[in-house]
Structure formats: C-alpha cells, structure tokens
Design brief:
10 helices; elongated; single chain; 14% strand; alpha+beta; seven-stranded mixed beta sheet; 53% helix
Length: 259
C-alpha cells in the first residue's frame, strides 16, 4: 500500500520549483518549445519504464536520457550559469555575500553610472546615432568583452558619444559597462533568433535581446533609423523609452544586481 509522507511532499515541491525555474529561464530565452518537448519525452520515459515496465523501450530511452541531458547542458550552458547565479544571489545569502565580498566591491553611487548613459543616449537619440550599451549584472561578461577592444575607462557621457560617433571604428559593436567603468567597445554579442522581434529592427536590437536572453545584463539600444531608445532585459525588449523610463530601468537593474 502506497503511503504519502512528508518526504514525498518535499520531493514534489522541490521538483516543481526546479521545473518552474527551468520553464521561466527557457521562456525568457525563447526556447520554450524545447522545454515542452523535453517534458513530453520525460513523461513517455517514466510511463514506459516505471508504470508499464517495458524493459527494451525503457533501456533505449534510458540511453537517450543520459545523452540528452549532456546535449542540453552544452546547448544551454549560459542559461544554466544564469540559473545558478540567480540561486546564489538571493537576499537570504546577503550576509554571506557581504562576508565574501572583495574590498574593491565597495558600495558605489548608482547615479554615477545611470546619468552619463541616459545623457549620452538622449543626445545620440536626437542626432540618430546608433548605439548599443550593455550594462553588466551579476553574470560576468568577459567572454564578450574579449571580442572587442579593451578600454577600461571611467564612464562619462562624452566618451560614450565618441565611441558611437559614426566615423569611429568602434561604433558598430557593443560597449560593455561594469559598475562605473567602460570595460570594452566594439564587442560582438550573441544574436537572438526570436521570431517575435519586428523585422523593422536590425542587428543592434537582436544583439541586445540575445545578450539579455543569455545573461542578466541590460542592453540599451539607440536606433540609427528612428532615434528611438529601447532596452532589452531578462529576455524582453521594451521600445520607445523616455529619458525617465531609461533612468528608472537602469537604476532598478543596478540596485537589484547589488543584492
């Protein structure tokens, strides 16, 4: 006779929590169909091997499960890294993070980062100068910074405008910001293949959405055609932002990254 115990309840809750987290991450990365396919495969595998105890089919599906998990880890290594970062960055670990924080990670004024970016974006919006600025969150962006030219300079409005000046050799790539430093410019980002992105939006918008799907960074885009300002964050693209909207979103993102 089957007995439902507290351990079973805990088991169900943990599995449900993990499935929800995986669902949310894959939804943000635009790969929700793969999640549904994997869930169908797991259900079929459980029915065949556990309920009906079909040995031949069960053994074949067991092999596919082990190989399939390895393939999923390779394909979604960025999403897995983001998942683990989110898990270790919650408020309940705040004391531990403070104890382990390096001396160089002292508190800083968020406005020193936000306002130069906002002023530069508004200026470039008026002149219809295309720009792509990536503000790092908790997940490091060194692999993307290495694709461009390392700058490592204090962030300021005039430097940002000079980087994206139309005759500048770095204006076509992305600029990466970490805390109050401009780390690199002319960087290459992953391109999103999300079909929901309007065709009128070009490579900058798709690259912004790509980095927002792969990491917890926020990408700010200034359209070269319209001058509109857009933000990609957590796998979502928000368009036609005002200076107030941009300031608010950047401030909230940077404050959340310091939790």
């Amino acid at each position: 006779m089957f007995e439902f115990t507290i351990k079973d309840a805990i088991d169900i809750v943990v599995v449900a929590f993990l499935l929800y987290y995986v669902f949310r991450i894959m939804k943000e990365s635009g790969t929700l169909s793969i999640f549904y396919g994997a869930m169908v495969f797991i259900v079929v595998w459980l029915i065949a091997s556990e309920i009906f105890q079909l040995r031949l089919i069960g053994s074949i599906l067991d092999k596919f499960m082990s190989i399939g998990l390895l393939i999923l880890v390779i394909l979604f290594q960025d999403q897995i890294k983001r998942f683990l970062t989110d898990m270790g960055s919650r408020r309940r670990f705040g004391l531990l993070r403070k104890l382990l924080r390096h001396e160089d990670d002292a508190a800083f004024d968020v406005r020193l980062i936000v306002m130069p970016i906002v002023y530069a974006c508004m200026s470039m919006s008026k002149s219809k100068t295309g720009a792509l600025i990536v503000v790092q969150g908790r997940i490091p962006l060194e692999q993307y910074a290495q694709t461009g030219d390392i700058i490592n300079a204090s962030i300021n409005t005039r430097l940002i405008e000079n980087i994206f000046f139309k005759n500048s050799p770095l204006h076509d790539g992305a600029m990466i910001v970490n805390r109050d430093r401009i780390i690199a410019a002319g960087c290459i980002l992953p391109v999103s293949h999300d079909t929901s992105v309007p065709r009128s939006m070009g490579l900058r918008h798709r690259s912004a959405l790509g980095i927002a799907q792969a990491t917890d960074a926020m990408a700010v885009v200034v359209s070269e055609e319209t001058g509109n300002i857009s933000v990609a964050y957590r796998g979502k693209l928000t368009t036609r932002l005002s200076s107030t909207d941009l300031e608010q979103q950047l401030t909230e993102m940077l404050n959340n990254s310091e939790i």
